[in-house]
Amino acid sequence: xxxxxxxxxxxxxxxxxxxxxxxxxxxxxxxxxxxxxxxxxxxxxxxxxxxxxxxxxxxxxxxxxxxxxxxxxxxxxxxxxxxxxxxxxxxxxxxxxxxxxxxxxxxxxxxxxxxxxxxxxxxxxxxxxxxxxxxxxxxxxxxxxxxxxxxxxxxxxxxxxxxxxxxxxxxxxxxxxxxxxxxxxxxxxxxxxxxxxxxxxxxxxxxxxxxxxxxxxxxxxxxxxxxxxxxxxxxxxxxxxxxxxxxxxxxxxxxxxxxxxxxxxxxxxxxxxxxxxxxxxxxxxxxxxxxxxxxxxxxxxxxxxxxxxxxxxxxxxxxxxxxxxxxxxxxxxx
Length: 334
Description:
This protein has twelve helices and 15 strands. It is an alpha/beta fold.
């Protein structure tokens, strides 16, 4: 990865877990960085980042933020497994279209879009699949997040042109020190966690620094290899692991005991369906403890080939899972 002292990059969601990691990489390269997010992040400003507050669903605010940029990393999204479809669609789909429109209007040459393997998850085992796997039928999606991420992916693919080169990255289960999502949820729910299914399912994950590196590599590759524009890439550790072994390793890093109890996939799926009905009927905004989508994610195998990312982007995870867990344990004990 080369230095780019004269470049300006915009990172949407720059205050988030992955966004901050990408920003650190960019600053190390001498890039002028702008962050676009709804909240204020004084720590980014202290790092030398130009912090812009705004809303992805407001085209005028996006247009202002994108002006003067050479590359845009569109990381921000509405995540989760619960909520109104309109909220997910407005941010993940309409917001992405606003980013594309602004890139074209301001002649931004490259757009790297952060997606998710869940965009192609159909609820069945996915073992070693590559980017040729198709999107599921619309009625196969059990929650709005993956459905709207798939729709946004299609927009980014369609936008690929001589004027705007685009790449779609699908990092899977990002984790690491200061992770407010995956690690925090696992540790917070340590006492109530149950193995879902037979406990034999294999998954992929990705350490946050590796995911950030992949984004920088993708931006560089779009300059050097215009033929890759419009393509999607799975981004993982390249080290598939038993799901419950990984969860127990995260628990151990946080000083928690391993999971002992279990529940069948069918039972968890039924519980999720009931909770979704109850929460939907009562209009509850809080995320249910179990949903049909979560039951599938916990019980099914989902690991992916990263050959395309290795070949096209030069991606090679620099932080192993073992090293990442060591760093995680150190951060949790401090």
